[in-house]
Every structure is written in structure tokens, then in C-alpha cells.
Amino acid sequence: MKALIQRVSSAKVEVDSSITGAIKQGILVFIGIEKTDEKPQIDKMIKKLLAYRVFYDDGGKMNLSVADINGGVLVVSQFTLAADTKSGTRAGFSTAKPPAPAAILYDYFLSQIKQVHTPIASGIFGADMQVSLTNDGPVTFLLEC
């Protein structure tokens, strides 16, 4: 499983010109679900991303997590994160989990993260989404489990 997280001042996702999720300060999380991922990887990723220190403390060091600052989390499924890009000039998707089981894990991700953190917002799995954000920093990390 891969999660690309970006520290944001604000972010939103739209589907068919309607906002499906929006946050103020927090993290935007793009998740790519790989073929071998199951619920244990989802659980591990949730713990990791909520604890990952990307916000500044009073001393100017990145020592605070989104949980520490009570920031928002905007979750967006991104199939292309699971792509194999090691060779050639076109991504291969044999490493990605097929859509139906990936959708189940995406829904599981959302249900589990909502149990331990708020506010949580999200896009719609498999939809054509437009994501707008103000990247704060910029600060971007690729997390893998």
C-alpha cells in the first residue's frame, strides 16, 4: 500500500462539480492499493499516517502529526499510485489490486480512520475527481506499508 501525503492549508475534492470532501489545515492523502494489500496493511497505514510528523512545533521542527494538531484528513483513492513505473514510458498496473476488492479496502480504510480521527473527508472511489489544494510548504511524503 502506498499513501502520498501532502501537508495542506486547505484541500477539496469534487465529483461532477459537487464537493464530496473538503478540509482546512491537515493532510491530503492519496492512497494506492496494491495487489497484495489486505486489512492489516490498511490498519498499519492508518496508524502511520495519523502519527507521521509533518507539522511544526513551537521550535520550528516537524514534530507534530495531524492527530497532534487535530487537523483534517482528506482521503482520495488514486489507482495510479500502485503503478509499476520501473521500465518504459508507460505505467503498468499489474501491481494494483483489481477495482472490486480495492473498493472494499478503500471503504474499510475510511470506516477505520473515522473511528480514530476527525475530521475526515473523502473522494469517491473510481470517480473522475478534481482535487484542489494549497500545499503548505510544500511538504509531501510517500508512505509505504
TrEMBL record:
Localization annotation: Cytoplasm
Gene Ontology CC annotations of this record: cytoplasm
SUPFAM superfamilies, A to Z: DTD-like
Motif segment (Gly-cisPro motif, important for rejection of L-amino acids): 137-138
Catalysis performed (reactions): glycyl-tRNA(Ala) + H2O = tRNA(Ala) + glycine + H(+); a D-aminoacyl-tRNA + H2O = a tRNA + a D-alpha-amino acid + H(+)
Entry superkingdom: Bacteria
EC number, UniProt record: 3.1.1.96, 3.1.1.-
Coiled-coil regions, chain positions: none
GO biological-process terms attached to the record: D-amino acid catabolic process
Molecular function in Gene Ontology: D-tyrosyl-tRNA(Tyr) deacylase activity; Gly-tRNA(Ala) deacylase activity; Ser(Gly)-tRNA(Ala) hydrolase activity; tRNA binding
Keywords recorded for this protein, A-Z: Cytoplasm, Hydrolase, RNA-binding, tRNA-binding
Keyword set includes Cytoplasm: yes
InterPro entries: Daa-tRNA_deacyls_DTD, DTD-like_sf
Family: Belongs to the DTD family.
UniProt function note: An aminoacyl-tRNA editing enzyme that deacylates mischarged D-aminoacyl-tRNAs. Also deacylates mischarged glycyl-tRNA(Ala), protecting cells against glycine mischarging by AlaRS. Acts via tRNA-based rather than protein-based catalysis; rejects L-amino acids rather than detecting D-amino acids in the active site. By recycling D-aminoacyl-tRNA to D-amino acids and free tRNA molecules, this enzyme counteracts the toxicity associated with the formation of D-aminoacyl-tRNA entities in vivo and helps enforce protein L-homochirality.
Quaternary structure note: Homodimer.
PANTHER family in the cross-refs: D-AMINOACYL-TRNA DEACYLASE 1, D-TYROSYL-TRNA TYR DEACYLASE
Domains (record comment): A Gly-cisPro motif from one monomer fits into the active site of the other monomer to allow specific chiral rejection of L-amino acids.
Name of the protein described by the UniProt record: D-aminoacyl-tRNA deacylase
Native organism: Bathymodiolus thermophilus thioautotrophic gill symbiont
Lineage: Bacteria, Pseudomonadati, Pseudomonadota, Gammaproteobacteria, sulfur-oxidizing symbionts
